[in-house]
Design brief:
The complex is a heterotrimer of chains A (488), B (95) and C (494). Chain A is built from 15 helices and 16 strands. Chain A is an alpha+beta fold and 488 residues long. Chain A has three domains: 299 residues, no CATH class; 85 residues, no CATH class; 57 residues, Arc Repressor Mutant, subunit A, CATH 1.10.10.410. Chain A is elongated. The model of chain B has no long low-confidence stretch (mean pLDDT 94). By secondary structure, chain C is of the alpha/beta class. Chain C has a single domain, classed as Amidase signature (AS) enzymes (Alpha-Beta Complex). Chain C starts with a helix and ends in a 12-residue tail after the last helix. The model of chain C has no long low-confidence stretch (mean pLDDT 97). The chains are: A alpha+beta (488), B mainly alpha (95), C alpha/beta (494). At the B-C interface, helix 1, helix 2 and strand 2 of B face helix 10, helix 11, helix 12, helix 13 and helix 14 of C.
């Protein structure tokens, strides 16, 4: 499926190298309470305020699973077209760390709730790849250690301890930073459509561990390094590039890659080894005896499947089909569910292509400039639809429409009324336009001569007529009249 | 199977229990005694037998997604050996 | 006052109901007995003020006519149960001055029904032991003495040694206990008391310091079968905070006491006749069989072929779970902390100082059997054998056996230091008859059947179908009825 372009190979001093990338995404499950306790899962809070006795691992405390987290994991699995396992097992992953109160993380090791699936990723307008999903499992987040409050001590806040995460493990199906970025972006879109994760990377709701290795094209997989906890899509791309370069450098110098965990430092633009995580990786997984197997029936899964919203791939296909949009435009519109909804409201009963142009070019452009998301748009879908209507019915020109958009953006109001009140209507009265055309021709005899010799001069005349009419003349009418009168 | 002193030291470290050399040799003997006691299990035919997951044939109950807990920072910290400004305090952790 | 401590729990209940005695005087009698019995070291923490305050409230409720089923009855609580505002130690140094802000579900159920807590009872550290010699607070001395050398300090069994000794010495009317491999039944057998480990899931584990989660179960130790039935009814029940607890109604177990056992089929497993078993124990077992036969039960020989693997299986599964359950004792959030040069050093020093040698050994064994390369050979294999052990019982019950009768222990109690000092496995063998029951999650009761030639008590064990504690109470009360009455030791310690 992936058309491996040779352009994707990295050039080293001794030839081409291929990057192989797999990812483990930790996505915080959207839920009110934690995975195994009734404490709030909300981001923030005063230190140790969102903490129950269970989260602090007090003696004798026991986990009780939150049904919503199970539901969200199943829905996400369905969104990844993955196998849903009707029986899965929670295991303990044992290690000592101050922000891991139990001394183990409850996770799923051998029997995850979701098995293999797939994500279709558009890397560019012309390139589409499919990335395999290995598995998705539920697990607890750890607390947070703060190392900068004191020179000799670390401070521990357990508010995050026990918050539900979905770990989504991809297959090593990506071969460039662009593909990896596009994959994370697509996964984030799917999660946000489903509503199982808010995808907020700044708050850590979505974090990526990136496995990178390099090899000579066609050869077997190289030794990989895991770059932990990369928290923005941009950094994911940068981290992959610098890590791949580092590995190629070592290999070309005749060295070997040590399998290890590394951290990306965006400031220095490099990855460095996390030696503290290296010692004695022996997690001693075993089934958590406090929890019975997690079981549900196919009817439960089918019920959730029936209630899933339309997902981005299906929506994109429908937009292409229903609105005859170019695939790329359709892809842009479905990136966010809210944008797609905005588009559909704007396009309803109108010229959908025109509506799509306006949503993508004018609206999204303007929103990006202001750093707004679509929900914050000062121009409603109805108002944008009204602008589209005014263009379609030739009441205003495309140029005037941009001015109108600006007015509605900054002042609000009903577009049709604004056009009426401010005299922005396009002049379609041929008599008035003809008068203007005649005036321009009369005033510029020399230019007339030139235009007859060189028809491209026509544009200059169009500009002059538009100037005379305050931009309101219908450009097509002006064009036709000029052609006739200048006889070109 | 039996362990040697290096394994004993490794297990002690995995368990985060400090052991001195005298203890290593004592523990080595004790652990080997226990391992030889459990050795008999290797003679049981377990082919086709599933490991037990629960002695009870019951389904795990799930709780509704409601915030019912938290907001008890004093209870959380009251027994802490070291705390400051509602945080637990530990010797510096180097990442 | 001493007669008050010699009432059974049922007798005391009836006397309180009929207002012949008050909760306050009953409590005072016990507090005074406890004071005189400190030599036995049954209690780690005595809570006389709290007990007297509870007694005052009980007396008030009795006058008000709003008394609970256990109103005014003074009991002891094993110090593995977290108790709100009262230091909880698990008999370990590592918990230091840990004072829970919460009450375990089982102890809270008992208080809800009006029971009065006299204090926290000694045990083996983290319930790991069979003689109560591993407690960081010193061993418990049994009130029982051997005829041959009365000066020997006899162990009360373990891990619920404080519970069994306190009940046998009349330092409470009953006690809570826990049982992971025999920790209720073995100490009960060693002290001539009654102890029941109910079906796994019958009692909530919430708030009880965990040893091995898939095996741990709470239960009572009392002086009579009826008292055990009364206590268990209050202790048992579903708890939404423990998803391994069972959502099923709790029967009135007391009604089973004295009910007919005619026609009940009792299985006698041939594999429990282990090599080297003393003739006295074998004879005692036969006596138990005879008592039940006389009561109208039908005796059938059964086979539980995987019995001999139960103890080795236990010594993989229990330490594995314990190694993980005890990881939380790291000196960060509660309990002991030993300073170290960095965090890892702090952990290692804290845990080396905080845990006693038996606990350290079991954590290390557990860590080993779960570690990479050994997990399948030890842990997974043990969990498979556990399936086989459970199947043995399933098959026996499937052919119509109502309960299984065995000796509770392979010997009578021994003296301090007599077992396990050179070889830990020697001590582990104490649980050889009880541990199968935990492996299969079944209910098991130990009931005294008399004394051996050395003057120390002997106990029989009955094993029942899942959630059929009622049959066990009926059969145990038949044995209690038939057996010579236990004469508890006169208070030589007072």
């Amino acid at each position: 499926m992936s058309q491996q372009a040779s352009a994707k190979y990295l050039k080293g001093a001794t030839g081409d190298w291929e990057i192989v990338i797999g990812m483990e995404i930790h996505a915080q499950v959207t839920s009110k309470a934690k995975l195994f306790s009734g404490a709030s899962a909300e981001y923030g809070g005063a230190p140790n305020d969102h903490v129950s006795l269970v989260d602090a691992a007090m003696p004798g405390m026991l986990p009780v699973i939150n049904e919503e987290c199970v539901r969200q994991a199943v829905r996400t699995g369905l969104g990844l077209e993955a196998q849903i396992n009707l029986r899965s097992i929670f295991d303990r992953k044992n290690y000592f760390y101050p922000d891991l109160p139990q001394g183990y993380q409850i996770s799923q090791y051998k029997y995850p709730i979701v098995g293999e699936g797939v994500v279709i990723v558009d890397v560019s307008p012309t390139e589409r790849i499919s990335v395999g999903i290995e598995r998705l499992h539920l697990e607890q987040d750890a607390g947070k250690s703060l190392h900068d409050l004191s020179p000799t001590e670390s401070h521990v806040d357990l508010n995050r301890s026990g918050v539900a995460l979905m770990e989504i493990v991809s297959k090593p199906d990506m071969h460039s930073a662009e593909e990896a970025r596009a994959y994370v972006s697509k996964l984030r879109t799917i999660l946000r459509y489903i509503g199982s994760c808010d995808g907020n990377m700044e708050q850590g709701s979505l974090r990526a561990d990136v496995n990178v290795s390099v090899r000579r094209p066609g050869e077997k997989l190289g030794t990989r390094c895991e770059i932990k906890n990369v928290n923005s899509i941009r950094f994911i791309g940068q981290a992959i590039e610098v890590e791949a370069r580092r590995q190629i450098g070592i290999l070309e110098d005749g060295g070997e890659i040590a399998q290890e965990t590394r951290l990306f430092d965006p400031g220095k633009g490099e990855t460095r080894s996390m030696r503290s995580k290296e010692e004695a990786h022996d997690y001693r997984y075993f089934p958590d005896p406090d929890l019975l197997p997690l079981e549900f029936d196919q009817a439960y899964v089918d019920g959730l499947k029936g209630q899933l919203p339309e997902l981005p791939d299906a929506k994109r296909a429908r937009f292409i089909e229903q609105y005859a949009l170019p695939p790329y435009d359709a892809g842009v519109l479905v990136m966010e569910r809210a944008s797609a909804d905005f588009f559909e409201q704007t396009a309803k009963g109108r010229d959908a292509k025109l509506a799509a142009n306006w949503v993508i070019n004018e609206l999204f452009g303007r929103l990006n400039k202001e750093g707004f998301d679509v929900a914050q748009s000062p121009v409603s879908a109805a108002a944008l639809g009204a602008i589209v209507d005014l263009i379609s019915s030739n009441i205003i020109s495309g140029k005037i429409a941009k001015d109108l958009f600006e007015i509605v953006w900054s002042e609000g109001g009903d577009p049709a009324q604004i056009v009426e009140a401010r005299g922005m209507k396009q002049v379609t009265d041929t008599g008035a336009i003809e008068a203007a055309v005649d005036a321009v021709i009369a005033a510029n005899p020399d230019k007339v001569e030139q235009a007859r010799a060189k028809p491209t001069m026509l544009g200059w005349f169009v500009g002059q007529v538009m100037k005379q009419t305050g931009g309101k003349a219908n450009p097509q009418t002006v064009n036709d009249l000029l052609k006739r009168k200048l006889d070109v | 199977m039996s362990v040697d002193p290096s394994v004993v030291r490794r297990i002690a470290h995995l368990s985060r229990i400090a052991v001195d050399e005298n203890e290593v040799s004592r523990l080595n003997g004790e652990i080997n005694a226990i391992l030889s006691f459990v050795e008999t299990l290797s003679s049981v035919n377990v082919e086709g037998i599933e490991p037990i997951t629960s002695v009870l044939p019951m389904q795990m109950k799930k709780r509704p997604d409601v915030v019912t807990d938290g907001g008890i920072v004093d209870d959380i910290l009251v027994n802490a050996p070291a705390r400051e400004d509602h945080y637990f305090v530990v010797p510096k952790v180097i990442e | 006052m001493s007669e008050l401590t010699h009432l059974t729990l049922a007798q005391a209940r009836d006397a309180l109901r009929s207002k012949k005695i008050s909760a306050t005087e009953l409590t005072k009698a016990h507090l005074s007995a406890m004071e005189k019995a400190r030599l036995l070291n049954c209690y780690i923490t005595e809570t006389p003020e709290l007990a007297l305050e509870q007694a005052r409230q009980s007396d008030f409720r009795i006058t008000q006519g709003s008394a609970g089923p256990l109103e005014g009855l003074p009991i002891g609580v094993k110090d593995l149960y977290c108790t709100k505002g009262v230091r909880t130690t698990a008999a370990s140094r590592i918990l230091d001055q840990f004072t829970p802000t919460y009450e375990s579900t089982v102890s809270s159920n008992l208080m809800r029904d009006g029971a009065i807590s006299l204090g926290k009872l000694n045990l083996d550290e983290f319930a790991m032991g069979s003689s109560n010699e591993t407690s960081a607070f010193g061993p418990v001395i049994s009130p029982w003495r051997r005829h041959s050398d009365p000066s020997a300090k006899i162990v009360p069994g373990g891990s619920s040694g404080g519970s069994s000794a306190a009940v046998a010495a009349h330092l409470c009317l009953g006690a809570t206990a826990t049982d992971t491999g025999g920790s209720i039944r073995q100490p009960a057998a060693f002290t001539g008391t009654v102890g029941i480990k109910p079906t796994y899931g019958r009692c909530s584990r919430w708030g009880i310091v965990a040893f091995a989660s898939s095996l741990d179960q709470a239960g009572p130790i009392t002086r009579t079968v009826q008292d055990a039935a009364i206590m268990l009814r209050s202790m048992a029940g579903h708890d939404a905070k423990d998803t391994t607890s069972v959502d099923a109604p709790v029967p009135d177990y007391e009604k089973a006491i004295g009910s007919s056992v005619k026609g009940r089929r009792i299985g006698v497993p041939k594999e429990y006749r282990i090599e080297g078993m003393s003739p006295e124990i074998l004879q005692f077992w036969d006596q138990g069989v005879a008592w039940l036969k006389d009561a109208g039960a039908e005796i059938v020989e059964i086979s539980l072929p995987h019995t001999k693997y139960a103890l080795p299986t236990y010594y993989i599964i229990a330490p594995a779970e314990a190694s993980s359950n005890l990881a939380r004792y790291d000196g960060v959030r509660y309990g002991l902390r030993q300073a170290g040069r960095d965090i890892a050093d702090m952990y290692e020093k804290t845990r080396a100082k905080g845990f006693g040698s038996e606990v350290r050994r079991r954590i290390m064994i557990g860590t080993y059997v779960l570690s990479a390369g050994y997990y399948d050979a030890y842990y997974v294999r043990a969990q498979k054998v556990r399936s086989l052990i459970k199947q043995d019982f399933d098959l026996a019950f499937a052919v119509g056996v109502d309960a299984v009768l065995t000796p509770a222990t392979p010997s009578t109690a021994f003296a301090q230091g007599e077992q396990g000092s050179n070889d830990p496995v020697e001590m582990y063998l104490n649980d050889v008859f009880t541990v199968t029951v935990n492996m299969a999650g079944l209910p098991g009761i130990a009931v005294p059947g008399g004394c051996a030639a050395n003057g120390l008590p002997l106990g029989l064990q009955l094993i029942g179908r899942p959630f059929d504690e009622e049959t066990l109470f009926a059969l145990a009360s038949a044995i209690e009825h038939a057996a010579p009455k236990i004469e508890y030791p006169k208070p030589w310690w007072a």
